[in-house]
Automatic annotation (TrEMBL):
Subcellular localization: Membrane
All residue ranges annotated as the Amino acid transporter transmembrane domain in the record: 215-621
Record key words, sorted: Amino-acid transport, Membrane, Transmembrane, Transmembrane helix, Transport
The protein, known as: Solute carrier family 32 (Vesicular inhibitory amino acid transporter)
Chief subcellular location: membrane
Organism of this sequence: Blastomyces parvus
InterPro entries on file: AA_transpt_TM (IPR013057)
Listed Low complexity bias regions: 7-21
Family: Belongs to the amino acid/polyamine transporter 2 family.
GO molecular function: L-amino acid transmembrane transporter activity
């Protein structure tokens, strides 16, 4: 494992105090989780002191890269491995038992006390590999954690339930199932992933722990969170508001924002239970066991697949409205043909372009407002609003609004990674406030403006109304179509990466992890005979990327209704992933230590949202004619 040591940092590292806590931390502080956050913040400050500006454009892209790998389903876990003196002895020739023995030795307290926690920094920029029988999860969890026995005496972890504690210990053990030559089996480095930094610290009791050093600043955290929440779901909000009416729709939108903001906060609280937790799937594991982790990962795949299908449908519908003649079917095929080469673009370049997603969605909202102000008469005018209603005109269509109004809030699968990568985790609450206020105001503006402009004639996507209505400047319509065309080109390849990795895993291939380099003077480990043929690996990977786009395009052709797709995603997946499961994790992990009034609220939230999810999902598959929709 290569050790990251900037020459400008080495002096400051070696001169740092060798005490078990940084100098600026009060000695009376006894909360391990607070200490861990302070350690991470101080290490991050040291690491970035001699580097480029923290909020540079490149660092924004790197931060988004680290957050973009959230939902991969793969039968392994690429993890951080601590680079220690003597690592050269831990080579491909060791057996799994010997490897586990080394890991146990390294995670135990160091009786010699020869390694101060803030002496020479072990910043880890490379990955090892975990390939365990039970290990089905995401790719960014640290391997080495503090021994569980001493850590559960802390303020937070002592409050968790016994089952969560047992599952967490099992997760820790599973992370130690390393096949030592797996890293050597890969000939090349996975350059697409932006690694986390990991630092080993030593506690007062002598135990050691590998913690993730957060690198993302508050602006980067807000950007990542907004980038997750702002998407095409807001284009169907006017339709959802029309189905529900003012008196039901606006409170439902407020409820969706408040409930998802609350669950995003308690997810971070659950993450603080143990430092080895990084992903949403890890929380599922320690809450309900290994099967829950698999189910959660499959839900992620369904959510990503549905989002990609909706993007293709939106692309085809919008361009067909502006340039009629070819038909939506042909435009979907054209979109698929464009997305195939985009699926081979390096993730780093896609991450750089991800800022266009926020820009495009925000610009579409602004253009719709401008169009509404410019046009003097109805339909499509804010100066002459269309007919609206306080209550639903068709009560049988109200359940469709559940999913349509919930669909823009699907970001909780990424929030644990975003929180873990924060340079100052105590500012996570502030980041959430800014994120949700901005997102809510944008969604509210879109929903209200769209319904006021078109009333009962609002379509699946509000942009289709704009493009099919005369009286707007042509150049604004062209801008809308251009922005809509850009969104799939930037978001679909990003969303496809976890799906592609899943397909590669099912085919028996893993994306090549970084090889373990102990010393630059020593040759890199060579692949063993059982390694997949490089040409075969390339063929299978290319085929998986092409087939993924083909499947998405096929589903978009078979299910062409944008509103039904968004209603299904919102009701079945967003409500489940963003509200039901986080609350269930929280209740399971903390149990009776949660205040009584909060437990009551949580159980009510579970009951209400479960009902909404079931009813909304069922309504998404009922034919339009059966519920009185033309």
């Amino acid at each position: 494992m290569a050790r990251h040591r900037a020459s400008t940092q080495s002096d400051s590292h070696t001169s740092t105090s060798s005490s078990s806590t940084p100098q600026n931390i009060p000695q009376h502080e006894i909360n391990d989780n607070d200490l861990r956050r302070r350690w991470a913040a101080e290490i991050s400050t040291i690491h970035n002191s001699a580097s480029e500006a923290p909020n540079s454009f490149d660092n924004f892209a790197r931060s988004w890269q680290r957050a973009a790998h959230f939902p991969e389903v793969a039968p392994r876990r690429s993890s951080f491995v601590l680079a220690l003196p003597g690592d050269e002895e831990h080579g491909p020739g060791l057996s799994i038992d010997e490897t586990r023995a080394l890991l146990r030795q390294r995670s135990a307290p160091d009786e010699r006390g020869l390694e101060p926690p803030f002496g020479e920094a072990d910043y880890l920029l490379d990955y090892g590999t975990v390939d365990g029988e039970f290990d089905i999860s995401t790719r960014t969890t640290p391997l080495l954690g503090r021994s569980y026995e001493p850590s559960y005496g802390t303020t937070v972890s002592s409050r968790i339930s016994e089952s969560a504690r047992l599952h967490a210990a099992q997760l820790h053990r599973e992370q130690q199932f390393i096949e030592a030559d797996a890293a050597a089996a890969a000939a090349e480095t996975d350059t697409e992933r932006e690694p986390f930094l990991v630092k080993r610290i030593q506690h007062e009791d002598g135990s050691k722990e590998a913690i993730i050093v957060g690198q993302s600043t508050v602006p980067q955290t807000i950007f990542n969170s907004v980038n997750v929440l702002i998407g095409i779901g807001l284009l169907s909000l006017p339709l959802g508001l029309m189905y529900a009416g003012w008196l039901i729709g606006i409170p439902l939108l407020i409820f969706s924002a408040a409930a998802t903001a609350y669950t995003a906060k308690i997810l971070a609280k659950c993450m603080d239970v143990d430092p080895t937790l990084v992903t949403y799937a890890d929380l599922a594991y320690i809450s309900f066991g290994p099967h829950a982790r698999i189910v959660t990962s499959l839900l992620f795949c369904l959510e990503l697949m549905g989002a990609c299908v909706a993007l293709v449908v939106l692309f085809a519908d919008s361009i067909d409205a502006l340039i009629p003649g070819l038909g939506a079917l042909r435009w979907k095929l054209i979109c698929g043909a464009i997305l195939i080469p985009m699926n081979f673009v390096p993730l780093r370049l896609l991450s750089l372009s991800s800022i266009l997603g926020i820009f495009c969605c925000t610009s579409i909202v602004l253009i719709i407002f401008v169009d509404g102000i410019i046009k003097p008469e109805s339909p499509g005018s804010l100066r002459d609003p269309a007919r609206t209603s306080l209550l639903p005109e068709n009560w049988s269509a109200v359940p469709l609004s559940f999913g349509l109004i919930m669909s823009p809030w699907g970001g909780h699968s990424v929030f644990p990674n975003i929180y873990k990568d924060m340079r100052h985790p105590h500012k996570y609450g502030t980041s959430l406030w800014v994120t949700y206020i901005f997102t809510f105001l944008l969604d509210l503006a879109m929903a209200v403006a769209g319904w006021l402009m078109f009333g009962p004639n609002v379509r699946d996507e509000i942009t289709s109304n704009i493009l099919l209505t005369v009286g707007y400047p042509n150049w604004l319509s062209v801008c809308i179509v251009a922005f809509i065309a850009i969104i799939p080109l930037t978001k679909v390849p990003l969303s496809c990466r976890p799906l592609v990795s899943t397909a590669e895993s099912l085919c028996g291939l893993h994306p090549p992890p970084p090889t373990r380099r102990h010393d630059k003077s020593k040759p890199k480990p060579q692949p063993h005979n059982h390694s997949p043929n490089p040409f075969l690996r390339t063929v299978v990977q290319s085929t998986a990327r092409i087939l993924t786009i083909c499947i998405i395009t096929f589903i978009a052709i078979v299910f062409p209704y944008f509103d039904r797709i968004m209603a299904f995603i919102g009701a079945s997946l967003c409500i489940t992933i963003c509200i039901i499961l986080p609350v269930a994790f929280y209740l399971r992990i903390f149990g009776s230590s949660i205040p009584f009034w909060e437990r009551v609220v949580d159980w009510v939230l579970l009951g209400v949202c479960s009902t909404m999810a079931v009813v909304g999902t069922a309504w998404a598959f009922i034919p339009r004619e059966r519920i009185g929709l033309s």
